[in-house]
Design brief:
Rossmann fold; 258 residues; 7-stranded parallel β-sheet; 9 helices
Length: 258
């Protein structure tokens, strides 16, 4: 894809899962990349495997830590072209009347506060150069809802609301804003989600896995690379007029599950 060589890219939750694959994919295209993650072990492993990617341990709900990371990343990268607010947690799975308030608050904070704290630092840089891309990670749960996972669905719907709002606000500065909406992504994170949901619903993990595929037209899960490929497209010259969109990469989720 044209236009990725030399791009300056910052990714939160970038040391594992979707974020790591995204970071390594941008690097492979010639971009300069900085990532942060709350997982110290993942950051240590990422730094060894990719010494040319700036990697720092950061809690994206802590404004001081986010500001410190941005200060260091902007100096190392020499600016910023793509800011991917990828950090998020699945949160608790339970009927709404049994949902713990702290779990609700934590889920919204990581997903929404994390995106806001990225935007508040990235936008001034992008406004000054009159170009840039904000990528926010939502989910198909932010398009259709998700029973027993109300805090996660609320957070991911909120991400799409921010995407639409910031695209309107920042479009005059040639700053594009898009949301990535993964479906069920293969990997350890979804293994944990499936286990929690199975417990909340009182069914087996196999049944939960079948329910995810049943609601997908292509009858398959997606991979982290599928999500990274969409990020590359949006950051490339081919995506330079795409903004305000919730880009589902999910094999097509069907509401009726037929």
């Amino acid at each position: 894809m044209d236009g990725l060589q030399g791009k300056r890219v910052l990714i939160t939750a970038g040391a594992a899962g979707i974020g790591r694959v995204m970071a390594e994919s941008f690097k492979a295209k010639g971009a300069r990349v900085a990532v942060c993650d709350v997982d110290e072990a993942a950051c240590a492993e990422m730094a060894v495997a990719n010494p040319d990617i700036l990697t720092r341990v950061v809690d994206v709900t802590d404004i001081g830590q986010v500001d410190g990371f941005f200060d260091e990343a902007l100096e190392a990268l020499g600016g910023l072209d793509v800011a991917a607010a990828n950090a998020g947690i699945g949160g608790p799975a339970a009927p709404v009347e049994e949902m713990e308030f702290q779990g609700w608050k934590d889920t919204l904070s990581v997903n929404l506060d994390g995106a806001f704290l990225v935007a508040r630092r990235a936008v001034p840089v992008m406004k000054a150069q009159r170009s840039g891309l904000l990528l926010l990670t939502s989910s198909t749960s932010g398009l259709f809802g998700h029973p027993f996972r109300s805090p996660y669905a609320a957070a991911k719907w909120g991400i799409i609301g921010l995407t639409k709002t910031w695209a309107m606000e920042l479009g005059p500065y040639n700053i594009r804003v898009n949301a990535l909406c993964p479906g069920a992504v293969e990997g350890p994170r979804m293994d944990r989600v499936v286990a929690n949901e199975a417990k909340a619903r009182g069914v087996s993990e196999d049944e939960v896995r079948r329910s995810y595929v049943q609601c997908v037209s292509m009858k398959t899960w997606v991979t982290a690379q599928d999500i990274a490929n969409m990020a590359l497209f949006l950051a490339s010259d081919m995506g330079n007029k795409v903004s305000g969109q919730a880009m589902a990469v999910d094999g097509h989720t069907e509401l009726n599950g037929d």
